[in-house]
Each structure stands twice: as structure tokens, then as C-alpha cells.
């Protein structure tokens, strides 16, 4: 039987009863059509699943009882940050969704030299909330109990200025690079991977990354779309150095 997992940004304590957040409650009642007595699993991002039982299903409220806590150990031992040039529309949603499934620890949306997406303050806030919801949904599906951190979108230069020297391997996907994934050696600090937007990284971007000690990484002889490149790199790095 398929386990239904629901993200609830609430304190979860075994033995207590609570009302689900409105959006989660609506999903349980109207989409999943669960009823009183049905089991489900909640998680809030603390690394544990919380098996629960539905007590009541109303028009505007779903109440549940938390039955237990189960600590999960399915996070990748390789901590990876995906610094992704913001892509247009559903491409960025796909990147966030699949990167979450692939176990990424952090996603940094970047505004680069060739970025086509323009975000004012209001739109940036809405997109951030949307991307975080996409990541939560991907965690529900994939069985993760820790949500990846998704930061507000930043210009590449501002993000580079904010980096600290923590020992993480700094990489940028570049078609002309010669370094291969199998040659990399990661420390406990993991790595940071930069991927350009639809137009790729510009010369100014590459100079800034080089000055910040980023090495070029090459996946193969073909040019990949932005929505493919980062995901392919994450899968390769996980297989070679993380989950594999």
C-alpha cells in the first residue's frame, strides 16, 4: 500500500492532535479523498516521519493524531549546493523538483549575465514561495524528510561575495572544461555546482567564477539544456561520490 506523505510546517509530537494547514487539509480531503480513520504520514523537515491517523475531515478543517516518530536516514552523504541560473517558467520548477529528488542540500537561484528572467521584489518573493512548495511536494513523493534550503534569487556577483571558504569543492558546468566527474575528490564540506541559464554563462560570469576559485566541470561532448545540465551533473555526482 502506498504511503501518503504530507508536509506540515508545524511542530509534530507523538500523542498530540492537530489541525492540518489549510492547503494540506484541502489536498487530503478534496484531492486524496481521505476519510476519518485513514493513515497518513506527516513530516516537517526535521529529518523524521510522523505516522498519523485522520480523526475528522470537515469542509474547512482536517484533524489528525500523531501516532509515532520515525527518524529517517536517507539523506545523501554528499552535501551539494546547486547554484542555478534562473530559467524561464516551468523549466525552473522542473529543476527544483528533480534536484530535490536527487538529494540536493541547497538551491541558489542566480541572476547571471545572460539571464532572461527579470524579478522585481514582489515577483521574486512569490517565486521563492512557489519553488519552496515545489520542493516540499518533491519531498513528499521521494521520501525525503529534510527539505532542501532554497535561498532568495541573487545576482551572481552578490552571491560570490557572500561565500565563505568552508572547504566545499567549487564547480561550474562549462562546455569547454576538461575536468570529469570521476576525477573529483570531495571533503566533508561537499560541493557547490553552478549552472548557467538558457543562454549559458557569459564571459563576465566565467571571469568572476574563476576569480572565486571555481573549476570548470565537463559532462560530455554534447551541449545540454539548462534544465538537463544541472540534473545530469547531480545524478552523476551522487552516483560516483554520494548515494552510489
From TrEMBL:
A Pfam family assignment: PUA_4
Catalytic reaction list: uridine(1498) in 16S rRNA + S-adenosyl-L-methionine = N(3)-methyluridine(1498) in 16S rRNA + S-adenosyl-L-homocysteine + H(+)
GO molecular function, one term: methyltransferase activity
Chief subcellular location: cytoplasm
CDD domains: RsmE-like
Residue intervals of the Ribosomal RNA small subunit methyltransferase E methyltransferase domain: 74-238
Residue span(s) of domain Ribosomal RNA small subunit methyltransferase E PUA-like: 22-66
Swiss-Prot/TrEMBL keywords: Cytoplasm, Methyltransferase, rRNA processing, S-adenosyl-L-methionine, Transferase
InterPro entries: Alpha/beta_knot_MTases, PUA-like_sf, RsmE, RsmE_MTase_dom, RsmE_PUA-like, tRNA_m1G_MTases_N
EC number of the protein: 2.1.1.193
Top-rank EC class of the record's enzyme: transferase
Superkingdom assignment: Bacteria
UniProt-listed Gene3D superfamilies: 3.40.1280.10, Hypothetical PUA domain-like, domain 1
One example of a Gene Ontology biological process annotation: methylation
Subcellular location: Cytoplasm
UniProt cross-references to PANTHER family, sorted A to Z: 16S RRNA (URACIL(1498)-N(3))-METHYLTRANSFERASE, RIBOSOMAL RNA SMALL SUBUNIT METHYLTRANSFERASE E
Family: Belongs to the RNA methyltransferase RsmE family.
Function noted in UniProt: Specifically methylates the N3 position of the uracil ring of uridine 1498 (m3U1498) in 16S rRNA. Acts on the fully assembled 30S ribosomal subunit.
Name of the protein: Ribosomal RNA small subunit methyltransferase E
Organism: Rhodanobacter panaciterrae
Amino acid at each position: 500500500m502506498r504511503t501518503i506523505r504530507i508536509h506540515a510546517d508545524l511542530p509534530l509530537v507523538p500523542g498530540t492532535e492537530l489541525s492540518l494547514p489549510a492547503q494540506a487539509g484541502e489536498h487530503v480531503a478534496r484531492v486524496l479523498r481521505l476519510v476519518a480513520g485513514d493513515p497518513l504520514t506527516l513530516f516537517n523537515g526535521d529529518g523524521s516521519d510522523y505516522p498519523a491517523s485522520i480523526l475528522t475531515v470537515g469542509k474547512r478543517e482536517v484533524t489528525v493524531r500523531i501516532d509515532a516518530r520515525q527518524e529517517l536516514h536517507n539523506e545523501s552523504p554528499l552535501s551539494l549546493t546547486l547554484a542555478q541560473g534562473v530559467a524561464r517558467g516551468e523549466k525552473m520548477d522542473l529543476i527544483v523538483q528533480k534536484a530535490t529528488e536527487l538529494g540536493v542540500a541547497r538551491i541558489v537561484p542566480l541572476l547571471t549575465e545572460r539571464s532572461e528572467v527579470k524579478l522585481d521584489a514582489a515577483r521574486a518573493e512569490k517565486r521563492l514561495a512557489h519553488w519552496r512548495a515545489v520542493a516540499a511536494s518533491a519531498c513528499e513523493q521521494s521520501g525525503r524528510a529534510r527539505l532542501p534550503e532554497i535561498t532568495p534569487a541573487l545576482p551572481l556577483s552578490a552571491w560570490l561575495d557572500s561565500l565563505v571558504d568552508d572547504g566545499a569543492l567549487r564547480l561550474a558546468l562549462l562546455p569547454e572544461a576538461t575536468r570529469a566527474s570521476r576525477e573529483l575528490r570531495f571533503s566533508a564540506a561537499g560541493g557547490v555546482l553552478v549552472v548557467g541559464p538558457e543562454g549559458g554563462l557569459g564571459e563576465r560570469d566565467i571571469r568572476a567564477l574563476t576569480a572565486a576559485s571555481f573549476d570548470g566541470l565537463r559532462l560530455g561532448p554534447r551541449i545540454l539544456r539548462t534544465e538537463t545540465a544541472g540534473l545530469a551533473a547531480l545524478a552523476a555526482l551522487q552516483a560516483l561520490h554520494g548515494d552510489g
